[in-house]
């Protein structure tokens, strides 16, 4: 049963006249009469008592009037929701970012994107690096925001994607300010307790390559806690458990407040690039405009360290 048919039935019931119902439905009376006949042929019963003036619903139809009204309202709402959903979908950008970036820089990235598309809606997902790329390739995301070591390339073929650097980050060693003396004693003894990242996540690989490989020559390394989450690492450093390497953008406020100490004078830090990636050949106008805004070199997010 079509929505317009239900509306036709109710128009006759409310006006008691085929001619007035046709006027209300913005069609000619002859066209409306043909439509009513088509409805009755489809249902297989006469819906109206034409012998009475004003025209009335037959008892069997009248008994279902409340259901017809409810169904009409529900279908109208469904049509409206579908139209609204299509509008939102056409005006929505899906962004996936690494967990650490979600907590630190993604809000700045979305703020910049809104300069170009103030009416756009954004859906943000958080994942590890491999999952970010998987969502991009499966088109579950339009743009991925991920870290990269300076001078390196992403582990995807350049003929599949385009990437751009939009900012800089720095992975810095931090510890609760009142635990620095304890740490210096441990370093003097040739030991380094620390918060580690799993070897199979990006920051774990960065730590091994850029930090731990250097420290291992002179110190006995002791991983006190392992976590994949930079926020958890930062909290444990604040609690004085052990030093943690976290993005400066995550630690800056606590450092400025004197709760965390930046240990870069004692332990190596590591520079990172913040990059955006999208599939080559993306044609959506909204995505294209936002990409242009994000990759505008005059609007780089800037260094965070």
TrEMBL record:
It comes from the Bacteria. One of its GO terms (molecular function) is DNA-binding transcription factor activity. Pfam families: HTH_1, LysR_substrate. The keyword Magnesium does not apply. Keywords: DNA-binding, Transcription, Transcription regulation. InterPro entries: LysR_HTH_N, LysR_subst-bd, WH-like_DNA-bd_sf, WH_DNA-bd_sf. Residues 1-60 form the HTH lysR-type domain. Belongs to the LysR transcriptional regulatory family. This is DNA-binding transcriptional regulator, LysR family. The lineage of its organism: Bacteria, Pseudomonadati, Pseudomonadota, Alphaproteobacteria, Hyphomicrobiales.
């Amino acid at each position: 049963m079509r929505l317009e048919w239900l509306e036709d039935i109710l128009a006759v019931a409310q006006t008691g006249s085929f001619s007035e119902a046709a006027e209300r439905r913005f069609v000619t009376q002859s066209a409306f009469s043909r439509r009513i006949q088509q409805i009755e042929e489809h249902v297989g019963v006469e819906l109206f008592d034409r012998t009475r003036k004003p025209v009335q619903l037959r008892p069997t139809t009248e008994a279902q009037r409340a259901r017809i009204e409810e169904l009409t309202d529900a279908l109208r709402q469904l049509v409206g929701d579908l139209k609204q959903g299509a509008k939102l979908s056409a005006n929505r950008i899906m962004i996936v970012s690494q967990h650490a970036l979600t907590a630190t820089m993604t809000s700045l990235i979305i703020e910049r994107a809104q300069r170009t598309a103030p009416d756009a809606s954004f859906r943000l997902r958080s994942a590890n690096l491999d999952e970010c790329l998987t969502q991009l390739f499966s088109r579950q995301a339009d743009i991925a925001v991920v870290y990269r070591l300076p001078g390196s390339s992403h582990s995807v073929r350049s003929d599949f994607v385009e990437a751009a650097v939009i900012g800089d980050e720095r992975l810095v060693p931090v510890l609760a300010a009142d635990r620095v003396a304890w740490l210096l004693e441990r370093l003097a003894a040739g030991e380094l307790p620390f918060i580690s990242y799993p070897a199979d996540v990006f920051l774990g690989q960065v730590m091994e390559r850029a930090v731990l490989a250097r420290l291992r020559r002179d110190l006995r390394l002791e991983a006190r806690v392992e976590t994949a989450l930079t926020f958890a690492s930062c909290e444990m450093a604040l609690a004085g458990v052990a030093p943690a390497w976290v993005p400066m953008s995550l630690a800056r406020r606590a450092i400025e407040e004197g709760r965390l100490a930046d240990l870069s004078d004692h332990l190596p830090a590591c520079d990172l690039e913040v990059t955006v990636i999208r599939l080559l050949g993306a044609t959506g106008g909204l995505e294209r405009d936002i990409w242009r805004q994000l990759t505008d070199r005059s609007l780089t997010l800037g260094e965070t360290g």
